[in-house]
Amino acid sequence: MRFTKKDILDIHSLDPEEIALILDTAMGMKEISQRPVKKVPTLRGKTIVLFFQEPSTRTKLSFEIAAKRLSADSVAIAKAGSSMAKGETLIDTVKNLEAMRPDVIVMRHGSSGAAYLVANRVDCSVINAGDGIHAHPSQALLDMMSVREKKGRLSGLKLAMIGDIAHSRVARSDIAGFSKMGAQVWVCAPRTMIPAGIQALGCTVAPTMEACVADADVIMMLRIQKERMNDILFPTEREYAGWFGLNRDRVALAKKDVTIMHPGPMNRGVEISSDVADAGYSMILDQVTNGVALRMALYYLVAGGSRHADTD
Ligand code: CP
Fold it and tell me: N or C: which end of the chain has fewer CB within 10 A?
């Protein structure tokens, strides 16, 4: 199968065959990170710009490490220290980046839709590393990779997702991706954190946390995103943890072989207790490991794979 997309902007625009191709390619890439010399020449001569206008640890570093493992040259630009701090617009900034002939721009931006705006204005590939509350496709793809690796399938699994659904681009992308691949996605949060119409993305809203995690194959906890809240949406963190925090008693309601996930960063003691986050059934750090391989696969497919086979 040829991967023909120029950009990776969201999960909605990927069909199940394309998602399966990305996950298969990522599994192949994972082996490279296990070698003593973790580098292949696949993307030698390609240039990747990391354009992050919001903080990031996992996403930015894994996109950077992924570029290095494929021998691409990567450079980073942020608002601080660039001419955006002097008032240069987003479009002027990316047109100037494009003039330097990169092959891929990886961008994170606080505004939903920013990656689409940029992708429509530049000829190089754009990978959305998170836009506002809208989409975080590489996170959803690494989450699907991690679950498929652990469980051997996605279809038929029950994924329980609990937390700040309203402000979570991870939730929107994971709901779209897992449901597209045949999993049943259940969500739960205080009613102030459940957007109206979220069911249309392909999920069921559970009335209680207990109903959400009951018989779940996978539980994914989400962070409360205070930085995106204009109002107070719950009384106290202590009360939130009591109603919606994942502890051992609630894990016991899920399937015996349940897997616990979190995209990070975690608020320990709020949405997840430390004993759960650090238990053997937690694959939170495996998600981070797989994030490097998944992002290597995205680079390969948009900048070095079959899209460019005729010019290789
Ligand atoms: N999961 C995630 O997007 O983490 P960072 O914000 O650290 O990149």
Answer: C
